[in-house]
């Protein structure tokens, strides 16, 4: 798929989600997704926190945050980030996520262990 077509689809989806309700739940249901995640492939860390009716992600090498809006069970979408799909461990806890966008598919991030 060409970049322009995918970006248009993401923009349409974001527009619909901004006008709707929080589909995956609000703050309390989003808390389990928050934390630090590491990608061995990119050698980068992402920090995800709940905000309003979705999540925000701190972009690597920046203090900028990008919104992630829920569009399905354990799935979010955001401008510049693409589709974020969380995966869970055998106990049902959030273990990490993958990112897919026009130039990358299923880039894996795993939850970092808290220090201390």
Keywords for this entry:
about 120 residues; alpha+beta; Lipocalin; eight-stranded antiparallel beta barrel; 2 helices; about 45% strand; globular
Structure description:
With 116 residues, the chain is of the alpha+beta class. The chain has one domain: Lipocalin. The protein has helices at residues 3-19, 27-30; strands at 35-39, 44-51, 54-58, 65-72, 75-78, 82-88, 94-101, 104-111. Strands 1-2-3-4-5-6-7-8 form an eight-stranded antiparallel β-barrel. Strand 1 (35-39) and strand 2 (44-51) form a beta hairpin. The longest helix has 17 residues, at 3-19. 19% of the residues are buried. The model has no long low-confidence stretch (mean pLDDT 80).
């Amino acid at each position: 798929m060409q970049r322009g077509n995918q970006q248009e689809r993401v923009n349409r989806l974001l527009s619909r989600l901004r006008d709707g309700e929080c589909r995956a739940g609000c703050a309390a249901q989003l808390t389990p997704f928050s934390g630090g995640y590491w990608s061995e492939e990119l050698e980068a860390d992402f920090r995800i926190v709940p905000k309003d009716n979705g999540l925000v992600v701190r972009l690597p090498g920046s203090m900028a945050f990008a919104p992630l809006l829920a569009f399905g069970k354990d799935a979010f979408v955001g401008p510049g980030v693409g589709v974020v799909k969380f995966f869970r461990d055998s106990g049902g806890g959030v273990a990490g996520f993958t990112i897919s966008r026009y130039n990358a598919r299923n880039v894996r991030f795993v939850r970092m262990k808290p220090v201390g």
